[in-house]
Design a protein that fits this description.
single chain; 382 residues; alpha/beta; nine-stranded mixed sheet; 20 strands; 28% helix; 25% strand; elongated
Amino acid sequence: MYKKGRAWIELQMKNLKHNVELFQRLLPEYCVLMPAVKANAYGHGAQEIGEELQRLGIQDYCVACAEEGVKLRQEGIRGQILVLGYTHPREFDLLHEYKLTQTVVDYAYGKELESYGKKLSVHVGVDTGMHRLGESCTNYSKIRRLWELKNLDITGIYSHLCTSDGTTEKEREYMRLQEVRFLEVVRFLRADGRTGFATHLQGSYGILNRSRLVGAYDYARAGIALYGVLSEASAELEAMYDLKPVLSLKARIECIRELKQGEGAGYGLAWHADSPCRLAAVSIGYADGYPRALSNKGYALVQGRKAPIIGKICMDQLLLDVTDVPEAQPGEEAVFIGKSGALEIRAEEVAEEAGTIANELLSRLGSRLCRVVKTETNTGHP
């Protein structure tokens, strides 16, 4: 099947390599990247991204669930794969069979893992104030007792910063407080003779805002920024770091219609022509993950020029006003994220227009979008 026939994602692997090397320079030499490849690598394609990261020497990964870890193993990904979320006891066999490392979400869950009866590799989650997963940082005795569970091979301990992307002093203070709480737990465990475990605390923003942290950590869980994107546009961070987007989103123009002044288009005739115009039907819709919230707003790029989205976005198609691109023809590509000529549409821009963040926008890109890998030596696999 021709991958660029309808709608597709292009992956610039040279940009992924650039971002990996950027983060490795930002981190101390002893701190190893543990990329987050959950949610199909933030919509990029876990297999394609995982294989490239493996080629770049990455040996540690984190995912949301056991199923994601199993798929990576089946696709040949070696090394440590940490499951950040909950795994039901009926799926503990997957953890054992595929050599996945499971997060201990609290002490009671640690006892469930122990009752499985087989040795499991785990990292202990510590709740330092986000109040999501992890045993409370105040429960020193429960955290210590996890080391008494003989079937738990505890190889790491971590927490999650919830305001590391914040810009206010209050948010920065809370980030520092979370780190203090985490380091106190680590010091307690080591003073109690619990050693041999790795530590990690930073996600993308914890790495980019590393100057706000004082601790030394063994892993850094780079997520959205590893793909060259921020959750929300930030002039400050964009000026500080040369992040290069890995993903472009494109689709084909299917046909072009000439409309007279006053004619409507799309479901509910939600748009009407103020003057004679040319409309292009494009083969991408909300079932592909392009937000319906962008109906009658936003734009794509056609031949390096802006083409506004008009009418309601459908499940499989949407309409562009290509009046200002008179040479546009069926079969040409329209760019929804990425570059065309001198113009670029960033994922952060699209997400903001849709009322969300880039993480959600990208992770919702649909499975029927083909992934086309572009390397420094090719122009894209057909």
